[in-house]
Design brief:
About 50% of the residues lie in helices and about 15% in strands. By secondary structure, it is α/β, with parallel strands linked by helices. α5 (about 140-150) links the parallel β7 and β8 (about 155-160). The longest helix has 21 residues, at about 200-220. It is elongated. The structure holds NADP nicotinamide-adenine-dinucleotide phosphate (NAP).
Length: about 270
């Protein structure tokens, strides 16, 4: 843990929309940082209330901070960097969550050598996200520790040591929640085709995905593969279904193609 985490720490958040607000709520719930400044042109009521309750400065005066977290849309990088500049000093670490914006893109816009590029995902909104993160070579251990704590406030953090892997992280965990929602939709549709009323099939599918996810969460030492084996009796109903999913053109092949397509697209978007 670094000195910058705790009452003496200071952070500026640039952009408090969906993801920025989720981060802010994570920091607030953990009392992580003493001084928090927020820049947001159209503050929602929820943001205004949180800032008022916690004494966070909203669109106020700027001074160099330990960290600047950039959470504007990728197309707003330039204006976001302009808003961030007055909060950046020689020791500031910039944490960018902008999809598709490389360390080099961020560095070209701001006077900060210490930059962390992070890719969170939407369950961050309930503190259950997972973030892939990469730090520029100029980022020191304390700066990386601060970035880690800021990102960890909304879920797990996985550090990678090759920036190009961010595209694959995006394809697995960044876009991943949508794959799981789609799985629930497909399971519900198949249930309706198997004769269930559509609403009942949807409830069964949804509760199954929720419950299976929670079961996995509560057994962190047990692999998904082992959990699957435990509920698959030889010759039983689950085995019959898994034989279909396991076919050469089955789920594994589909996931490979889906992740490859997302990774390719992430590469195209970051130019
Ligand atoms: N949502 C996700 O699942 C997810 C996952 C990984 C990464 N990300 C990244 O997270 C970033 C934010 O996404 P989001 O969904 O939270 O977007 P969002 O809801 O649109 O939030 C961005 C906020 O930044 C504000 N903003 C724009 N220009 C600004 C400036 N110059 N200074 C200060 N604030 C400014 C925007 O205000 P206006 O609306 O007035 O423009 C908006 O409130 C994106 O770069 C995205 O790639 C998102």
């Amino acid at each position: 843990m670094t000195d910058a985490v705790g009452p003496s720490g200071s952070v500026a958040l640039i952009g408090a929309g969906n993801m920025g607000l989720a981060l802010l709520e994570g920091w607030a719930s953990q009392n992580l940082i003493g001084t928090v400044s927020v820049v947001e042109p159209q503050p929602s009521q929820r943001l205004q209330n949180l800032c008022a309750e916690r004494g966070y400065e909203l669109n106020g005066a700027a001074a160099p901070r330990d960290a600047v977290v950039l959470a504007v849309k990728p197309q707003a990088l330039e204006s976001g960097a302009g808003a961030a500049a007055p909060f950046i000093g020689p020791a500031t670490v910039v944490v960018s969550i902008l999809a598709g914006k490389r360390i080099a893109d961020i560095a070209a816009q701001m006077p900060a050598p210490a930059i962390v590029r992070a890719m969170p995902n939407t369950p961050a909104a309930i503190g259950r996200g997972v973030t892939g993160a990469f730090s520029s070579p100029a980022t020191n251990a304390a700066q990386r520790g601060l970035a880690d704590a800021l990102l960890r406030a909304v879920g797990a953090v996985e550090w990678i040591d090759d920036e190009s892997l961010i595209d694959a992280v995006t394809a697995v965990s960044g876009s991943g929640p949508a794959y799981v929602f789609y799985f629930a939709e497909c399971l519900a549709a198949a249930g309706a085709e198997a004769g269930l009323p559509a609403a009942l099939a949807a409830r069964l599918a949804r509760a199954t995905v929720e419950g299976a996810g929670e079961l996995m969460r509560r057994q962190p030492e047990t692999s998904p593969d082992e959990l699957r084996r435990r509920v698959t009796s030889p010759g039983g109903t689950t085995a019959a279904a898994l034989k279909v999913l396991d076919a050469p053109d089955g789920l594994a092949a589909l996931m490979r193609r889906a992740v490859a397509a997302a990774k390719r697209r992430a590469g195209e978007l970051s130019g």
